[in-house]
């Protein structure tokens, strides 16, 4: 496999050599969207950044088993369904189709397997029953709660609850302020031994990931906003069930900001992917996202997209000039080494693109022997198509 790449592990707060359990396979789970609306550019960042990691691991010789879920049980889905006179399932399936349309447009490779929370309710019920048996859950009124203190407390990803978590309140009937819902009896939803109702969000991902990838994952990827409570709660549930470490490398991308605020479907400020693609080619949006390391915040603006357009056009012209000259000269080899070294260092796509930009400037001024090989890496690893005009 060559030298080991380093990746930032949220669990340890540092860059670590990436060593999967199996020397030939990487088991990766990515948190998918709650399907009640179109995807915005914040989603694009999450799935494009993971797509590059996946492509890079494949280029290193790994087989990547990639599972991604759709959260299709949610109050927001129910609310939209009532507003539009549809069933929750119709709303969810519609936005799952829209998700695939957007991601295919952005050249995001499809997962090995997609799961829906609604298909895993029987497994979620079994997990809840098991947690009750083990003493890590309890019933209070119409709700089954996970007992955080009984399971040893948080700390896998969030090291200081007092500084990090604000606004947790003691709900009547909860033993501890951080205890969270495993099942809520509502009279609607799904039949269960606890009563007809709906599962808690955190249990859903544990059921889906462990069923498809096993008790320990190599990579669990998601946006930074999922660190707490979602991923912290997932980790505690899984450890309570198996006694094993749930995830070896927790990896989180930072936010896309719009006018200084985090972009989200629930906030007023958002830029839908398909609206952006009416003005800019998908390759430009992909270039814009990858100009920054996945762990830094980026500000969405027309100006930054225009800068990405200029860079993309430069790379495309340089690639066209270099096409067909396969034998790499020393100059091209040096740039290729810089490109790969940047990706080895916690997926520094911005540095990798800077190297490609510098090479492109040289190519447009003079001949650089064998440079097409580097542009081939841009296409296969960064997923930015250069062979056709926008």
TrEMBL record:
InterPro entries: Cys-tRNA-ligase, Cys-tRNA/MSH_ligase, Rossmann-like_a/b/a_fold, tRNA-synt_1_cat_dom. Keywords: Aminoacyl-tRNA synthetase, ATP-binding, Cytoplasm, Ligase, Metal-binding, Nucleotide-binding, Protein biosynthesis, Zinc. It holds the Pfam family tRNA-synt_1e. Its EC number is 6.1.1.16. The lineage of its organism: Archaea, Thermoproteota. Gene3D superfamilies: Cysteine-tRNA ligase, C-terminal anti-codon recognition domain, HUPs. One of its GO terms (cellular component) is cytosol. This is Cysteine--tRNA ligase. SUPFAM superfamilies: Nucleotidylyl transferase. Binds 1 zinc ion per subunit.
